Amino acid sequence: MTDSTRTHGGVMAGQELEMTEDGVLFTIDVDAATHQCLISREALNKLSQLKNVDASDADALDIFKAFEAYIRPVAHDLFKARRPQKTIRLTSDCITRAYDCTTRH
Questions:
Q1: With bands split at pLDDT 50, 70 and 90, how would you rate the model's confidence at 11?
Q2: For the chain, which terminal residue's Cβ has fewer other Cβ atoms within 10 angstroms, N or C?
Q3: Which of helix, strand or coil describes residue 24?
């Protein structure tokens, strides 16, 4: 593990989070299989903006934990829509689209 990577356990039934240079790695379980996801730092910042939360001094893990209940369903939806073979990537565009859909209802 490099200096730019930190792992935190005990998140949502023992799932681990890993902060990388690109954002936060996490896993989701879909159809009895575990899939790796990455939410970019930019997507976390965008989510903070959309939710009117100042996260300028928070690290990516803190932001992820604050919005985890929102992020995981977005990752599930992305997986079900695309069935990717590799890591599911949540970008700021994904977050914006998901937020726009939830605020219209």
A1: very low
A2: C
A3: strand
Mean per-residue pLDDT for 48-68?
91
10 closest CA partner among 23, 26, 24: 26
Sign of CA dihedral 64, 74, 97, 36: positive
Structure token digits, residue 89 = 């990537």
CA distance 78 to 19: 21
Full DSSP string of 32-83: TEEEEEEEEHHHHHHHHHHTT---TT--HHHHHHHHHHHHHHHHHHHHHHH-
Burial class (CB in 10 A: 0-12, 13-18, 19+), 34: exposed
Query: What gap in Å lies between CA 6 and CA 19, rounded to an integer?
Result: 5
* Residue 78: φ, ψ to 5°: -60, -45
